Amino acid sequence: MSNLFLRGWNWCRRFRHRCGYGVHSPSDFFLITFVVYERLPFYAYSLLHAKRKDVVRLSHYREKVDRLLFRLVNYLQPAAMLEVGTGSGLSARYMAEAKHVPLCTLDGGECREEVIRLLADCPHVDYRCGDVPQLLHRYVEEHGCPDIVHIAFTSYYKEVFEALLPAVSSHTCFFIGSPYATKEKREWWKQVISDPRTGVTFDLYDVGLVFFDKKRVKEHRIVNFL
Fold first, then answer.
1. 192: CATH
2. CA dihedral 45, 47, 50, 56 (to 10 degrees)
């Protein structure tokens, strides 16, 4: 109930930030109105909805957020993707269905059977488990920084951000999962927004988007996606 109240309160606070109002950049307006707020049913939604019940006990987003990740990947058309903090595996599956390119998802501890089954028919998804900093270091050595980085269900969000930042390009986008999950993460998210190394940022409450195109004026967009 408290979480529902908090969402209602934040929806009211963000009321004037809905539907792209006040956004003058054509590209940002398109992203907000035709990607974030897109309501058309995509081909994979029904298939992925049916799979949610099998991993519901593991960390996951609301279905609305996973569908957003699907649309963002479909819009950005990355050549490769990295996720740190696999959780239930649902987000990786949604992202993988949107674009069939190499996606590596890293998780701490041992690999979970439910996640293995969920990702079994996605041959382009590489599910790795173990020590997250070591796994990340190995990935960066092998591949550098991919076009999309999803910092998801992990306590190493700061370390992931700093490790990949030197290798970003103008085409890179970071998806920051649950930037308001804790007070510490909320303060860190504020630092990411103001960091001179980042470009245009979007705050959708459940997820933050960080772009790195330095040709654009640095701006921060708040979007009512609750």
1. 3.40.50.150
2. -70
